[in-house]
Amino acid sequence: MSAEARVLVVANRTAESPELLDALRTRTMQGPCEFTLLVPSTPHGITWAADMHGGGDEAEEHRQAFVEELRVEGLNVGAAKVGDPDPLAAIQDECNFYDYDELIVSTLPLHVSKWLKVDLPRKAEAATGLPVKHVVGSAS
């Protein structure tokens, strides 16, 4: 019997997207795993220009709604956290303190995603050495 894989799921505005939920369901079919949800407190829109740390409340709302949704689905959620506004820093912080086997990074589509503009999935893979699955989700 193999050990349970620890999967770090990184999402913000796509946290409750059907695309991400489908990806997590698919992942559970590949073998036992425990998900940790990380929601970088990345502000957007007017908030971003005014206050780099202004995304915390929204991130907390996404975190709570997503955890609830995953548990209703019967998925194994170990923890859910709000992280640094810089998504790469949030991922690195989390991976420095805890061991993960893989990453799932959920972004908005290319034309609206700040995370894709900075190539977050590739940078996260380079920074952590973990396999990264990129999911394009719709905004909640």
Task: Detail the poorly predicted runs.
Answer: 46-52
> Quick one: overall form?
globular
Question: Which architecture name does CATH use?
Answer: 3-Layer(aba) Sandwich
Helix and strand succession? EHEHHEHEHHE
Question: Helix content range of the residues, please?
Answer: 40-55%
Structural notes for this entry:
With 140 residues, this protein is of the alpha/beta class. It is built from six helices and five strands. The model is unreliable at 46-52 (pLDDT under 50). α1 links the parallel β1 (5-10) and β2. It has one domain (5-136): Rossmann fold. The termini are far apart.
Short description:
It contains six helices and five strands, in the order βαβααβαβααβ. By secondary structure, the protein is of the alpha/beta class. The N and C termini lie far apart (37 Å).
Which features would summarize this protein structure in a list?
globular, Rossmann fold, 140 residues
Break the fold down into its secondary structure elements and pairings:
Elements: E1 5-10, H1 18-29, E2 33-40, H2 46-50, H3 56-72, E3 77-83, H4 87-97, E4 102-107, H5 114-117, H6 120-128, E5 132-136
Parallel strand pairs: 1-2, 1-4, 2-3, 4-5
Helix pairs in contact: 4-6
